[in-house]
């Protein structure tokens, strides 16, 4: 067990809980969430990994650790933590905070209350199923931002497809190398924002992309996309899409489908550095947004 190892982040978090005099005044749920937050701190605070050293050359402490591991109420005095009206953690915002090590799967212990997780631009490294499967347990998430982090997988981790309540998903510039699986976007009817740029998928946009009927913003630059722009032909996407940028994908070929002219809310379309050919369809002149 990891708790047998006195130096594991779980043991360190448990020891902190035992010595935290305020824990005796909290409910079971509050003690659990303080343990989870302790795990996050000890797992990512100035923890050396080859990935973090490669990224920065030095393992920095957190940029802002205000309140963390203090006896203060985590809902009031802890940097990046927001709670609901029951005092349970609903949002974790630790973007650009020099997190290193590995982001701990124990965060799934607060899945019932957690609706936003923002870890953008940090230097932790979470490779493979062992360190990505927990994302699928965060079933109430509405926003997941892991862009510019060291999450690593062969393609997008399949666990993410379980997140049916997502409205905002940013997985840009991670370490995702592998095909876009056909079922990855099958059950995200509320997703409005999708950013997958800066990974290497070397595959077409999957057919079930058309299930993203609420999608407004789609960014997929520099992702080694293949195939063509056929997804524009599906009427299911026409009413909502507002902005599409899929630049710097030289394996993406074909022509611009005339159906693009039917995207009545499309305000911004960027298709530079692709292998497109043929005439620009006159239907683009129908776009008035």
What does this structure look like?
Helix 1 crosses helix 2 (28-44). With 289 residues, the protein is an alpha/beta fold. A hairpin with a 5-residue loop joins strand 1 (81-83) and strand 2. It contains 4 helices and 14 strands.
Keywords:
14 strands; 289 residues; 3-stranded parallel β-sheet; 4 helices
Strand order of the largest sheet: 1-2-3-5-7-9-10-11-13
Taken in chain order, the helices and strands follow as HHHHEEEEEEEEEEEEEE
Q: Which word captures the global form?
A: elongated
Give the mean pLDDT: 93
Largest sheet: 9 strands, mixed
Number of helices: 4
* Helix proportion range: 10-25%
Unreliable runs: none
Q: Strand fraction band?
A: 15-25%
Task: Give the distance, in angstroms, between the N- and C-terminal Cα atoms.
Answer: 58 Å
Structural class: alpha/beta
The beta-strand count equals 14
Q: Report Rg.
A: 21 Å
Task: Annotate the secondary structure layout.
Blueprint: H1 9-19, H2 28-44, H3 50-56, H4 74-77, E1 81-83, E2 89-93, E3 116-118, E4 125-127, E5 143-145, E6 150-153, E7 168-170, E8 175-176, E9 193-195, E10 217-219, E11 243-245, E12 249-254, E13 268-270, E14 274-276
Parallel strand pairs: 2-3, 3-5, 4-6, 5-7, 6-8, 7-9, 9-10, 10-11, 11-13, 12-14
Antiparallel strand pairs: 1-2
Helix pairs in contact: 1-2
Quick overview:
The chain is of the alpha/beta class.
